[in-house]
Every structure is written in structure tokens, then in C-alpha cells.
Amino acid sequence: MASQSPRSHEGHRQQTPHRQHVHHGRAPHAGHEAHGGRPAGRAGHTGRGPVSWAVAARATLHCLVGCAVGEVLGMVIGTALGWHNAPTMALAIALAFLFGYSFTLTAVLRAGVGLRNALKVALAADTVSITVMELVDNGVLALTPGAMDAHLSDGLFWGALAFAFAVAFVVTTPVNRWLIGRGRGHAVVHRYH
User: 3-state DSSP call for residue 121?
Assistant: First the structure.
């Protein structure tokens, strides 16, 4: 490829022409002079600077999936065991963090990173995003009348949960955009995609 537009990499403004851009699976590739030689990965951002909303939304969606799996599993387990709201919510939050981290950890391990460094990457990439996601979605659930007492078979439970996840996604996306634009959050994972 001879040259990219000044706005390639989904929102990352390049300072120099991007002359050679060939993806070969997950292997690093040449042509990232504007990134100081660091590969930007498929998601499009590892450094500082403008970040597209699409990049931020993908990072948030990744977080949301892990959180949703963990929270639903925690609520199912807590309900099946007859637990009250507080221990069920605590289990759901713990599992949301576990699944959120594990999704990132698995991807980074597949890229050939050792376990210890992969754990550091997952913690750096996801901690703020998952924390914001959990605060918002559990806050929305707690403030939704009847949601905390609804059973898994109630439409209110699933409707309130879906609404809580949607609000959390809307609130967390700008946080992730801000973090990625500063080389933090999911930006630390992009080089391993």
C-alpha cells in the first residue's frame, strides 16, 4: 500500500505516511512509524491521540460481554442457593471481574505472552472499564424499583438487567475512549491482537 489517508487506523492521526501495512495473522508488522515503531494491531490504537468512537465502543463491548456472563452466572448461582441480594450481588460482581479479565487474558496468552505478563496486561486493560461498568449497572439495578427482588423467571429481572447493561455501555464508552487516547486501558492490549 503506497500511502494511507491522514485518518487511518480508525481515529488515529498519523504524523508520517503509512507506507507498508500488511497484516499477517497476529504477527507484528512494519509501517507504524507514527506509532514510534510499535504495532497498532487491528483495533487501531496503542499510543496517545485521537481515538474513534468505534474503537472505544469495541473495547466497551468486550468488557460488557465479560461482565454480563459473570453477572448472570452469579445471579443464577445466588438465586439457586437461596441467597439474599447482597451476597448474590457480591458473587455476580466478582464473577464479572473474573470473566472480564479472563477474556482478555485468553487473547493475550494466544498471542504468545507468558502468564505473568498476560495477567499484568489484562489488569491494566480492564480494571477501570470493568469497575465503571459494574458501578453503573449495579447502581441502575439497585435504583430500579422491584429489580433486586425479581426472580430469574420474571420479565422485570431481565428487562432491568438489559437496561442496566445498556446504561453502563453508554457511560463506559467515553471512559474507554479517554483511556485509550492516553495509551491506557484497552490500548495496552491492542498490540497483542
Answer: helix
What is the SS3 assignment for 29? coil
Specify the DSSP class assigned to residue 46: S
Per DSSP, 82 falls in state T
Question: Buried b vs exposed e over 121-134: b needs ≥16 C-beta within 10 Å?
Answer: bbebbbebbbbbbb
CB 176 within 8 A of CB 185: yes
- Among 12-21, 68-77, 84-93, 165-174, the range scoring the smallest mean pLDDT is 12-21
d(CA 49, CA 86): 41
**Whole-model pTM?**
0.72
For 88, other C-beta atoms within 10 Å of its C-beta total 20
